[in-house]
Amino acid sequence: MTRAARLAVPTAAVLLLVSLPLWANSGVVFLAGVTMTSAVFALSWNLLFGYTGLASFGSAGFFSIGAYVSAVLLREGYGSLFLLVVVLAGLVGAAVSWLVGCVALRRSKGIHLAILTLALAELLRITLSHTRWLGSEDGLPNIPRPTLPFGFVSVDLAAGNNYYWFLCAACGVLTAALWWIAHGRFGRVLRSIRQDPERAAFIGIDVHACRLGAFTLSGGFGAAVGALYAPWSQIVTPDLGSMMHSTQPILFTLIGGATSFWGPMIGAAAFAVIDFGTRTLVGMSEIVTGSILLAIVLFAPHGLAGAWRRLAGARVRPNPNGNTAAGGAIGRPAMREGAW
Amino acid sequence: MFALINGLSAGMAIFLVAAGLTLMFGVMRILNFAHGAFFMIGAYVAATLVGSGPHSIATLIGGAAVGGAAVGLLGLAVERVVFRRIQHVEEHFMLIATFAVMLICVGAVKLIWGLDFVSVDPPPGLDGAVSIGDLFVPQFSLFVIGAGVAVFLVLELFIHRLWMGKMIVSITADRWMANLLGLNVPVAVTLAVVASFALAGVAGGLLLPNQTLSPGLGDAYLLLGFNAVIIGGLGNVRGAFVAAILLGLIDSFNAVLLPQAPGIAVYVGMIGFLLLRPEGIFAGRRA
Hints:
The complex is a heterodimer of chains A (340) and B (287).
Chain A: H1 3-23, H2 26-52, H3 59-75, H4 82-107, H5 110-129, E1 147-150, E2 153-156, H6 162-183, H7 185-195, H8 197-202, H9 207-233, H10 243-256, H11 263-277, H12 284-299, H13 303-312
Antiparallel strand pairs in A: 1-2
Chain B: H1 2-28, H2 35-50, H3 57-83, H4 91-113, E1 118-119, E2 129-132, E3 135-138, H5 139-161, H6 163-173, H7 175-180, H8 185-206, E4 212-213, H9 217-232, H10 237-257, H11 264-276
Antiparallel strand pairs in B: 1-4, 2-3
Helix pairs in contact in B: 1-5, 1-8, 1-9, 1-10, 2-3, 2-4, 2-8, 2-9, 3-8, 5-6, 6-8, 9-10, 9-11, 10-11
């Protein structure tokens, strides 16, 4: 695998995405936009799972918080401040996430954390579906796409495919921010916590604070991408926070590979292709995704990205535990209780 | 009073689902996301057998039994192919493997039975209401309560009185030690897993007239079943029984006292339990 080829693949993918509206029909473009948001959503989840070793099953709750914040503000006519709205949604998501994390992370981990987050998200969904001014079960329809003023020129995102390109750029920015966090000092600290919380605490890392930080960041990014999603689909419903939506990032991450930063993104793309390819046969998409997921858990726990890395011949150094340096996801029964 | 009966009936319905879940967790340490899907398959199989208007109570129970047997067989296959292999994998990978099984099941149900809603009427003898004092109680609620108690008693007898059950209890307590003492762990595990799946199928069949069948049926019950299993203490059948009744009552009184917000109290209660007593109400006493 030459350096040129390694650069060429992502470049081609980006070019493909950006040029999509020029040659594909609007259905495919819409699907691509949704896939982009869910890819970033999955990345934000994987910050928690792949990097910190915490599995949240309620991440869709934060996504729907962001989507509702953005939907309400856009319908109230704050469209010209849309960038601020996205930031605000992210902050609200982060604040809620911090509160949840304060309570949840202290007391529970493993299965308890999974069920607790699931129950909280479900509580949010039911509350939303009974809140009259948020549209109850029907959600908020007709969310206008905003117009962004840039000094002298203003860009009308409602026109043509403008919002799609805006979505490309915004998802790119969020991805870059997540990449920066994951590859910086904080990301390395988180990874050390995932691999061995006790040893991490021993060398002076405040494990609880770092987990809480990761939980907050993950919720904030989830909400921000939810805020981007609302004007794209132009409708938000309580179902955004449903259990099935919470499991989507899990699916994407596992299919793509939790140990690689780009894994969730690859997974989201693969999932979109499967979904699109089997759309005419009811039930087939679940069977195909389920089978792939099962095969991955049983045979290739590092996901598509891991398989790709092996094909690409990138060297993965084994560490003294016999795990791969990038992985360590499997085969550590000794730390099952604490590894979450 | 009506809320009480309603709550008991809902609680028993939850227990029917939770019983299999907790049994599975006890022996395998797997929280089975696919349980709801198997519940659904049992319901669909039974519905196909008895048609939309069963002729008698016996037909309904027979349908449930066949549904249970079919799902039990399916469970045997799933245990061989999947669960046995993910024993030594980290917890979240187990969860995700069962989630994958769930997806496959939901997909298969959609392929075989389609997306349409199927509904089954209660058989004659269960479709009316009886009056106890000045209060009308739907017969089907009483039937569900009876079925729940019956399943609980059978499980209780099986687990605490019979040799096979005691073996399962010992494996739940300490798998490694049980193996060391010469118990045939693989056979007992297989038995418990098949029993768990069969319970899911039977539950699906028995609760058939309570709802309309759709491929999304599994989810609603799964979450409530999870609640009961967690509150009751993982792997504890008695705990799950008590917790399921508790949840049923909470939900039912919620519907009476706070009609504008149905379904909220269950989750509030559950979150409270998770935070205050994460080991369940009977912490330390596993059975």
